[in-house]
Amino acid sequence: MRKRFVLFDFDGVIMNSFQVAFEVNKMICPFLDENTYRKLFEGNINDWEDPTNGHAKECRRDIDFFTEYIPRMKKEVQIVSGIKEVITELEKDYILIIISSTITSPIQEFLKERGLAKHFTQILGNDVHKSKIEKIRMVFEKYNIGPNDCVFITDTLGDVREASQVGVKSIGVTWGFHKSETLLLGEPFRLVEKPSDLLMAVSDYFKSLN
What we know:
Layout: E1 4-8, H1 18-28, H2 34-40, H3 45-49, H4 65-76, H5 83-90, E2 94-99, H6 104-113, E3 120-124, H7 132-143, E4 150-154, H8 157-165, E5 170-173, H9 180-183, E6 190-192, H10 197-208
Parallel strand pairs: 1-2, 1-4, 2-3, 4-5, 5-6
């Protein structure tokens, strides 16, 4: 039987990083508020952070997001309660890959410290490519698979939209950056309210393709 792939977003899905990420971005753009920040994730966050972007020119370009964020992430951010058990179970039946807008090495360190790194076949961070569309295409090419072999677990509308551009459906989680009403705008396969619900959601998704 052909192996299926579960693609995971990292921030907001596996770890509770919203507050730290917001506070660092507020250092860069002091006028930023939480609602505005969440709205930026309705697309690709890198489009806003690009120095050539007109909005970003209003911000302090002498502060590098990852330079400030990574040390705080390591000290302050916690793993989402219950997600470790879900990852362990999913890995028994699926190939797990992380596709994230955080750079790869701190993700690897975070997972290793919590005994989770061994469950993921690959991590594609922001240093690999800033577009999740392109990173999903890299997965297709490397493993010789197509859209129906994958499902993407994410907490943002922007991710749902990027995945849909390459034909991959998403399962939205409601404990991250975006609330249900925002995620629903992307027409995900399903929304889940707690990590344990992911097991059934992933199974139901692949069954729906048969």
